Amino acid sequence: MQLRDALDDYKRHAGDGTRFPGERRTVSGRFSGGDGRLVHVGDDGELRDFGYPLTGQTGLVRSRIGLAVGDEVTWLDEADTTQRYVGDTALIETTHETARGTVARHDVTLGDAHLTRASVDLSDDADPDDASLVVYARFAPDGRDDRVGQLRFDDAVEVYHADEHDFLASATGFSDLRGQLPTTFPELLDDDPTELPRDRDGDRYEEERLSGEVIADVPFEDGVATVATLLTDRNETDREAARDRLDALFSDLDGVDALTDAAADALPSVPESAPARDSVVADLRVLSLLSAPSGLRIAGPDFDPYYEHSGGYGYTWFRDDAEISGFLLGAADAVGVDLDDWHARSARMYVDTQRPDGSWPHRVWPRDGALAPGWANARIEDGPDLDYQADQTGSVVAYLSQARAAGVSVDGLDRTLVAALAGLDRTLEIDGRPVVCQNAWEDSAGRFTHTAATFLEAYSELGRHGEGLAVDALDDPDAVPGAESLPDDLAAHARDQAREVYAALDDLWVPERGCYALRETPDGGIDDRIDSSTLALAAAHRSFDALGGGATGSGEGGAVDEERLDRLVSHVETVVDGLYHETDAITGLIRYEGDGWRRTGQDSEKVWTVSTAWGANACAELAALLAARDDPRAAEMVERARDLLSHVSPGGSLCEPTTYLPEQFFDDGTPDSATPLGWPHAIRLATVALLDDELPQFADPAAADD
C-alpha cells in the first residue's frame, strides 16, 4: 500500500463507524497463493499484492478490470458480482454481471505469477469484434511509486525501479497500451478521492514511461482473454527467462481445468473421511496462504502498513507461529493430512532464528527470519527486560519438544532446546513464576497467568521428551547465559521446573471470582479481570498431567491433583461465561474485560475469533483431562466446546462466507482487522481434530443426524 492509496481511502472512509480510514481492508474478497506471493482478489474483482513480507517484492498495489465494447468501458467493480473458491483449491472464480454481458473470471497465484482468465458472454446487441478486456494495473517495484520506468513489448510491459522487475503480459497481446502518472499533488490535496484510471492526457507524454501505472486493452480470442503478472528480482531472473516463463504459463495453463489442477497442487490434500472436512480444507488453505517458502507465517495480511490504527500484521510472531505449528503437529494425523514438510520447515526456522541467550525476538520477516520492526526487543536493547514477551519463547520450546518426540529431525535442534531451557530458567523468578514482561496481547506489563501457562507447558514438554538432552549439545556453553547452572539430567530438571510453576500458579488464584487472575501488576497488586489468554492453562495442565503423579513425576496416575482440577473447571467456566457476548448478529468471546482496542464508537468490547476458538479448544482440552479420570464433567465441557466451535465454523456468525476468520467483529456483525488471521484457523483445526480423535465417546448428536 502506497501513501497515495492510504490518503485516498482516508477521504472515502473518514468518520465511518466501523471502518478505520487509511487502511486496505481484506474483510471481503479472497486470497490466492500458497508458495510465497499472496494476491487478494476483492469481491469487486480488484487485484492487490500482499506478499511483501513473504517474498520481499511489492508487486501490484492497485488495479481495475473492465469490459470495453466499442468506446464504452464498464468497470467490473461496478457490476453485480459473486465469488467462490473452486473446490479445495485457492483458484478463485468471480462472476460479473454487466449490462453488456457476463464476465467469468478465474484467478490463481502460482509461485511468483498470477493469472487472470476472463471469458465473456456478450449480450445480443454487442459485437464480439468490438470487445476487449481493459486492465489498469499499478506496480510499485521495490516498494516505490516514484523513479519507476517501463519497457514495452508486443505482449508484455515490464515495470522496474532497481532490483524488482514486474511484468504484465497477455496471451493475446495488446491492442492498446498506455501509462499514466500517479495521483498528483493537487489531486492528493483535493477533498474528494481521485477516480483512476484517468483519460489519456496528450500533454503529459512522459507519463507513458515514467510510472508504475499501465492501462492495457487485451483482445478476446474465442471469448477468452488471459493476462498474467510476474514479480521478479533481476539478480535471480533475467528478462528473457521472465518472458519465457510467462509464455509457458499461457501455453500450459490454457483452460479452467488446467488452472484448477495447478492450484490443487499448491495445497495439502485432505481425505474425504476428514472430520468437518470443509472447515479443515479452509484452515489449511489459509495457513498455506500466509506461509513464506521458509515456513514462517505472517499473522495476517497487513491491512495497516502505516501503523495508523495498529502495529502492523505482516510479520512473524513466534508466539502465534509456534502455537500454529503445535496445533498442526497435533492435528495432522487425526485429520489424515501429511504435513511433515511443514513441521520440519517450522523447526528449522526456529532453530535458525534463536538468539544467543536462548530466546526469540519480538517479530521477524518470514521470508528470511531477519529482525522486523517491533516494540518488544528488550533482550536486544540496553536496559531492563520489561519489554520482552517471554511467552513467545515458551511457545517455541513446547513445539520444538513435541516435534523432537515426533521424529522431526533438524540440525541444531538439541542445541536450541538446551539454550532455550537456560533462557526459560533465567526468566523464572524464585517464586516459580515468570518475570515481569509484556503479555500476549502486547498492551500491558506484569506477571501474567498466560505467560506462566506457556512456561508450564514448555517445561512439561521438555520433561516428557527431553531425554538425551545435555549441555554439551551447545557449541559454546560459556556463550549461553545460564547454561553453567544447568544440571546433568536436563529432562529431570525440566520436570522439576514444571512442578515449581504448577505450584506457583496458586498465587494467582482469585477465590472470589473462581478463576485465575489476569496478572500480578508490576507493583505487586492482583489484576483479577477475566482474560481469554488464561484459557491456555487447560492445554498446559494436560501437558503437565502427562508427566505422571508421584514425588518425582514418574508414578502412576496424572500429575494434576483434584483441587487443581476443580479450580481448572471453575476457571474455564468462569472465563467462558464471563467473556461470552451475544448480539443479534454475532456470538462469541471478547478478548478480556475492559478491552478498548479498535472499538471506535462501540460501547462494549469487541468479539474476537481467536478468543472464541481458544475457548472451544480449552473446553475440549479440559474435557480430555476429565475424561481420563472418568469425571462426568467431561460431557459438559465437550458440549461447551462444540457450542463455541460452532460460532467460528463455516456457517457460524464469526466465520465469513469466504470461510475466513477475521480477527474481530463489531456488535453489528461487521468484521474488522486482519482477515484471515492464522491463529484462530489453527485453533479451529486442532479443536476439530481433538474432539473427533480423543473424545469420540461424546459424539455430536447433530453430526450423527446428518
TrEMBL record:
Record protein name field:
Glucan 1,4-alpha-glucosidase
Q: Name one GO molecular function term.
A: hydrolase activity, hydrolyzing O-glycosyl compounds
User: Which InterPro entries does the entry link to?
Assistant: 6-hairpin_glycosidase_sf, 6hp_glycosidase-like_sf, DUF7997
Instruction: Indicate the segments forming the DUF7997 domain, all copies.
Output: 1-244
Entries under Pfam families matching the protein: DUF7997
Locate the region Disordered. Answer: 1-25
Q: Its Gene Ontology biological processes?
A: carbohydrate metabolic process
Family of the protein in this entry: Belongs to the glycosyl hydrolase 15 family.
